[in-house]
Amino acid sequence: MPRWLKRLLSLLFVALLLGLATWFALPWAVSLPAALQTPLQPSSRYLSSEGEPLRLLLTSQGDRVAQVLRFEEIPTRFIQATLAAEDKRFFDHGGVDLLAIARAARDNASQSRIVSGASTIHQQLIKVAAARPGKRGWWVKTVEAIQARHLAMAWSKEQVITEYVNRISYGNLLTGCASAAQGYFDKPLQDLTPAECALLAAIPQSPSRYNPFRQLAAILPRQQRILAKMHTLGWLTDEQLHVAQKETLKLQRYHGGFEAPHAVEMLRTTPRETTRTTLKAGLQRQVETIIAQRLRALKERHVSQAAVVVIENATGHVLALAGSRDFLAPEGGQINGAWVPHSPGSAIKPFTYLLALEQGHTPASIIADLPIEYTTPTGTYRPDNYAHKTYGPMTYRNALGNSLNISAVKVLSLVGGAQPLLDTLQQLGLSTLTEPADHYGLGLTIGNAPVRLLELANAYACLARLGKDLPWTLVNEAATTPAPRRQFDEATCYLMADILADNQARQLTFGQNSPLRLPFPVAVKTGTSTGYRDNWCVGYTPEFTVGVWAGNFDNSPMQDVSGVTGAAPIWRDVFLELQTRFGLTWYAEPHGIVRARIDPRTGKRLTAQSPPVRVSHEEIFVQAQQPPAATAADYDSQGRAYLRPEYATWIRSADNWMGNLVTIETTPQARPWRISNPIPGTVVRLDPDLPMGGRRLLLQTEPQRSISWDCDTLPVKTEGDVNYVDLTPGRHDLRATEPSSGEVQRTHIIVHPE
């Protein structure tokens, strides 16, 4: 053998060894891109309770990854289209296609320019994962080729193609085949036709040049070539090819969805891959439509915004939440009216009356809706009714139904002042009430403290559950649903529901045919803040609670729009929608409830022994808390009910809507009395320079009566006809009871130490 031949063979052998080493050993020395070692994280997506997409957020890289699919979830037809477009010998080469490199070199040399590439799916996946900035020179491409070989040796073909179609960009911020199918056709990848698969497979080569929304004509020739190659490779029959070539592509742009934007924004504080919300998508859309329609009718009266919350009482699930008229509107659309605090007006009153019912008062208890002043640390407080009228003797039912401010303030004073109401509201989750009770005072019951619509609606949902409290939730996770907590007595809450559903009880203020009257029973209360800045309407059935706020985000006043004309029509439409979708019921009467006829002028029960009366209506009571029976002593010879002398001015005034149904009792015992010392809110500072350190406080009424005093925190002492207490630091609530009538009045004092 000639020497030159021996040398040539030796060189070829060495080259073969080097080639084998390069092919099999060198790739292990070059590590794969770190991104391939990290699982791809999909975009946070939010679904309705039924699984309908609400929103798909952008990832931290600024794209959308709808879903990371497993190999078995990727349709075979889509894989075939991808291989026909990018790498038909994918299952035959080892990560780098040497035959394709040779072909590309020949074609490029013959044309004296680059007309063909030879990168495999392995190489493209390396390129995507490495994400090297700047121009990719021959050295970078060489390293990527070695890494592609490493990838082919380390991963299965199925793993490589799965990662590729999940990570590749399909343009328009869409990463991965699942995102592309949704983004271009608004359908799952599994539902794509061969023609649609070929279109998506055509995009990754140049996502900007082959943008279907802008250059559909430019991408169609490439799509047709892919279909033809699929046919050549035996992946499409003649008939399938013909159908695919003739198919008209119907693009449907999907931006990631923008349903229930305010609710989704509330959930973004705790991001996760998939959040199944409690929202009902269809109901959510209808609620948003109702808001838009009703606000158009109120535009001329300067009502620009509204918010609605719908809660499923059994679970605490928020079924719909709309925070504004239009999230994308430039005038504060992003403000969430369901979460921003506003003054609730009279919408707080039911909780005041509920406290009274819990303390033994009844729906027939009488409150004197007459002018009154209270001395407070900040001055004199004089509540006034919405209509600037007074209504005389009112049962609790009618006082609450007609939303009388004076009556509500008086009832709150009777049950202990602002503190027990504040404690109740805080326990029900109204998180904005952070000031001490003295800061709000008795005005708390008529809405002088801002609250959130969502939290107030959930407080009403506690009433709807007949006293069982549950937290609201936007996340549909049954495993985290807590057990309800008993907050109020069941029978008491039933009385409250009956009062709030009584259309007759609100007739004086709202009339017979207001928007609050529905063709089925619903408990409801409206609220209007001072100066017509906020409208509220909150109501419930056993199944659902609906809360509505209406107003303006700049806090400008509406033009004489109250809760019954602003928020109530929206509330009404939502409840009609709930009735249509789900059906509604009413409460079964709980054990221990009794019915009796009463005289609404006195609140007393009418029995067989009572004299005939000119007015009466049926009332319900907890059995152990029925009012005393009416007797002949309660009426004059004309059947007029006797009222205390404090009503004399009202009877003679134009506000007297009872006419000659009432008169004044002139006997001394009927004279009104009040606590003259201490007045509610009296502040005492102990002083060692005073006799007995200033600790003795006299308890007095005007006029003087035989009164029984008691206090839970101080012993009441008596010397002759004088009652007094020895003071200690703290707040002390005192009660004065007239034994003959059973009338109770309350006051409280605050004692500071020396």
Automatic annotation (TrEMBL):
The keyword Protease applies. Pathway: Cell wall biogenesis; peptidoglycan biosynthesis. Residues 63-231 form the Glycosyl transferase family domain. Residues 307-570 form the Penicillin-binding protein transpeptidase domain. It comes from Prosthecobacter algae. It catalyses: [GlcNAc-(1->4)-Mur2Ac(oyl-L-Ala-gamma-D-Glu-L-Lys-D-Ala-D-Ala)](n)-di-trans,octa-cis-undecaprenyl diphosphate + beta-D-GlcNAc-(1->4)-Mur2Ac(oyl-L-Ala-gamma-D-Glu-L-Lys-D-Ala-D-Ala)-di-trans,octa-cis-undecaprenyl diphosphate = [GlcNAc-(1->4)-Mur2Ac(oyl-L-Ala-gamma-D-Glu-L-Lys-D-Ala-D-Ala)](n+1)-di-trans,octa-cis-undecaprenyl diphosphate + di-trans,octa-cis-undecaprenyl diphosphate + H(+). It comes from the Bacteria. This is peptidoglycan glycosyltransferase. InterPro entries: Beta-lactam/transpept-like, Glyco_trans_51, Glycosyltr_51/Transpeptidase, Lysozyme-like_dom_sf, PBP_1c, PBP_transglycosylase, PCN-bd_Tpept. Its EC number is 2.4.99.28. In the N-terminal section; belongs to the glycosyltransferase 51 family. In the C-terminal section; belongs to the transpeptidase family. Keywords: Carboxypeptidase, Glycosyltransferase, Hydrolase, Multifunctional enzyme, Protease, Transferase. Pfam families: Transgly, Transpeptidase.
